């Protein structure tokens, strides 16, 4: 089902793409410094950031469309929820030993991504609740 996105949904997707892209560029260009600061493996920071580029491009393409498919938006929301769960799991796993600042960084971005997912879900709900008017009526 395609629907015109509520402005909240479009904003939530756009801010998600912008913030994710900014973090990707920062971590890819300064993975070594971020690794020392956060106590997280440099290779993890670099490759995880690189792996997020297709997500950023996907969301940018999605947000530029005049109508959105409900399932596609749910896919983005689900990806964000998985990201939050994986971020917390990484900290609890013992696989990494981040500094206090590193733990704060991982938790802050997880909370931000949870906020994106919540705002996207709200925007999707508003999009579904907004009646579609026909230009030919």
- The level of helicity is over 70%
Q: Total strand count, please?
A: 2
Indicate the proportion of strand residues.
Answer: under 5%
Unreliable runs: none
Could you say which overall geometry the principal axes of the C-alpha atoms support? elongated
Question: Secondary-structure map with pairings?
Answer:
Elements: E1 2-3, H1 7-29, H2 31-38, H3 42-63, E2 68-69, H4 70-93, H5 100-129
Antiparallel strand pairs: 1-2
Structure description:
The protein has 137 residues and is mainly alpha-helical. It has one domain (2-128). 78% of the residues lie in helices and 3% in strands. It contains five helices and two strands; from the N terminus they run βαααβαα. The chain has a two-stranded antiparallel sheet. The longest helix has 30 residues, at 100-129. The two termini are 20 Å apart. The mean pLDDT is 94.
């Amino acid at each position: 089902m395609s629907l015109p996105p509520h402005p909240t949904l479009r904003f939530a997707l756009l801010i998600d793409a912008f913030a994710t892209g900014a973090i990707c560029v920062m971590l890819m260009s300064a993975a070594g410094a971020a690794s020392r600061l956060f106590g997280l493996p440099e290779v993890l920071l670099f490759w995880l950031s690189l792996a997020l580029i297709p997500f950023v491009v996907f969301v940018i393409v999605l947000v530029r469309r005049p109508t959105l498919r409900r399932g596609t938006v749910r896919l983005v929301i689900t990806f964000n929820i998985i990201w939050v769960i994986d971020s917390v799991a990484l900290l609890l796993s013992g696989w990494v030993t981040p500094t206090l600042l590193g733990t704060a960084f991982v938790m802050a971005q997880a909370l931000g991504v949870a906020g994106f997912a919540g705002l996207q879900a709200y925007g999707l709900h508003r999009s579904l609740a907004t009646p579609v008017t026909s230009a030919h009526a």
